[in-house]
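ARCHIVE CARD
Drawer: 12
Card no.: 0347
Subject: one protein chain, sequence and derived structure
Cross-reference: see card 0346
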Amino acid sequence: MGKTADLTTVQKMTIDTLKKEGKTQKVIAKEVGCSQSSVSKHINREAKGRKRCGRKECTSKRDKRALERIVKQNRFKNVGEIHKEWTVAGVSASRSTTHRRMQDMGFSCRIPRVKPLLNKRQRQKRLAWAQDKMDWTAAEWSKVMFSDESKFCISFGNQGPRVLRKTGEAQNPRCLKSSVKFPQSVMVWGAMSSAAVGPLCFLRSRVNAAVYQEVLEHFMLPAADQLYGGDDFIFQHDLAPAHSAKSTSTWFKDHGIPLLDWPANSPDLNPIENLWGIVKRKMRDARPNNAEELKATIKATWALITPEECNRLVDSMPRRIAAAIQAKGAATKY
């Protein structure tokens, strides 16, 4: 817990606001994220009208406004680059002062959220799809087998450049990275329903229509027997070239398996994407030394997925659809 002198400008303003609302010091400390004594000292200082002792700030309000404009021009700059631009603008301050002023404004260095890059036509199709499925019940979604491929790397540490943003700006377009497609590599194929997960398939070659149909034959059909028994189900996959090939469509017709129509570039609508995220988070502390150890770790972690986790993710489909409609087809937080 920081001392009173360590409170940022944002924290002090929040304390003052909550105090006016009649909140107790204990509640204020919990919401602001500091010690109760820091809240008490700040409130007492304000009540007595005491001014903070120490050296006067070397930056003016005008300097701070200039700094905020520089940060907002490009959220992906680092502190060194921002400090250099601020100095060029005529402000005499150290790099550490630049960093402190940014913190006082509420900017923090965070890993940016990733959202699919959608054009206007794709947004329109997503909106139409969501409106068509908005009345589907949990029982209808439980009949859908969701599938996807995902890339797993031996190293999970490199997450790319950080972004400077304030609290509540995670979805700000200026603070987002655009995702397009996974790079070509050996992928892991998996499937899930609201009841459980199916067997995994490790893909050793580039996935074309022939390879994908072998995956369907040897992994999807056994997964369907495992998850649905003899009951009817609907299969979901995205619009990857191997999935939308004519021969693949013929394969599904020959096997009498209905497909769920799916909008392009919409991983945020697919609950299995969140399941991959859960698996990778559980593997965060794992350090496999080679591909075989990585496969073993993935299998072991996949086996730990509970029916409750699967059910919770599939039950989120109505909320995902409502979010897509509210966003008018744009990418959502899921």
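Annotation on reverse: Residues 180-185 have pLDDT under 50 and may be disordered. DSSP finds 15 helices and eight strands in the chain.
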